Amino acid sequence: MICGKSESVSLRSVHRAHITPSCPLFVEGERVSSPSVKRMSSFNYTISFSVDFTSLGDFFIFIYHIVFATCAALLAGSVVLGILCTRALRQQNRFIFMLNTSISDTLTGFSVYYLGLFDVQEGYPSRNSTFYILPSFLGVNVMTFLFAQFDRYLAVGHPFFYNRFITRWFVIACCVFCWVYTYSILTIQNVLPVAQAVKLSAFGVMTLQIIVVIKVLMTIKLYIIAKHQLGREAPSPERDSKKESLRLIVFVVICFLSLWCPSFVNIMVRYLSNGGLRFRNEATNVFAIMARFNALSTSALYIWGSPALRTAVWNTVWKRSIQHECETRERKSTEHLTELKGHVTDKSRTQDWTKT
């Protein structure tokens, strides 16, 4: 699983790790992408599987990625449909942020069908690389969670300012900015020459560190507000809603950072030195697997922590799907019984005619 062969050329003498806020999650590659690097990258038109199927562990990894990709896409996709089909949820800012992260998680789930099942290595030397387009889906969530934390802080701590200035269109603009910024930086870094790409990569590392520190501080701040400030307010539906939203965002961010931090630490170690762990491909990258698990855990926490979202997902997605399946089976069963009844009737008529 871990490649034991060390690099013959120092990282510092060639290129730096490709790390930006746009793709901070699984970037275990060692050098910055550039036009020259792209020409040197090997791309096989016949893509092999991610494992050799020579051991039980290979089968487990392959099956795990199939199950995970399916579950993540279905669960996150259910959250997307539940929010889009429920007007009451679309009008609340916190559910707009949930919608944005769930769209990213749905795409992450689908991306695992490629990253997890085939021999893909992002970075340099790359194999069947997507130039970080697929790994960057979760990078969108890094910024979205940061905006969501500030949103909850202003909603609870400064309600008058929040109600006046933080409109639904402003929140939608923040979500769009997360996507535009992420893939704009990624595009620029992929087309820049190596020297400029190294500078942009260093700026991305610094920005990413600042974002992580802010997220940790905001998580602590929101926890204090949820525990002390709201506890002094009189019981009311509004207080319960605020407490629910704060508790949910705190749990989600803690889970996100817990699963993502090992990958971030390994990236930093490899960026600053020749140390760190190296893996055969994205499918066997333990840190990437942990980070991608956020695509499933985030949606599960949303449904668990929000009764309104849970009801919406059940009524608009799963209940309708089950009813449609039951109606389809009932219709097929009725048609089958009708055909059998008609066959029996024709047979009895034939027998009567023969006797006559």
Automatic annotation (TrEMBL):
InterPro entries: GPCR_Rhodpsn, GPCR_Rhodpsn_7TM. SUPFAM superfamilies: Family A G protein-coupled receptor-like (SSF81321). Coiled coil: none annotated. It is found in: Cell membrane. It holds the Pfam family 7tm_1. Gene3D superfamilies: Rhodopsin 7-helix transmembrane proteins. The keyword Cell inner membrane does not apply. It comes from the Eukaryota. Keywords: Cell membrane, G-protein coupled receptor, Membrane, Receptor, Transducer, Transmembrane, Transmembrane helix. GO terms for cellular component: plasma membrane. Residues 76-302 form the G-protein coupled receptors family 1 profile domain. One of its GO terms (molecular function) is G protein-coupled receptor activity. It is a multi-pass membrane protein. The chain crosses the membrane at residues 59-84, 96-117, 129-148, 169-188, 200-224, 245-265, 285-304. CDD domains: 7tm_classA_rhodopsin-like. This is G-protein coupled receptors family 1 profile domain-containing protein.
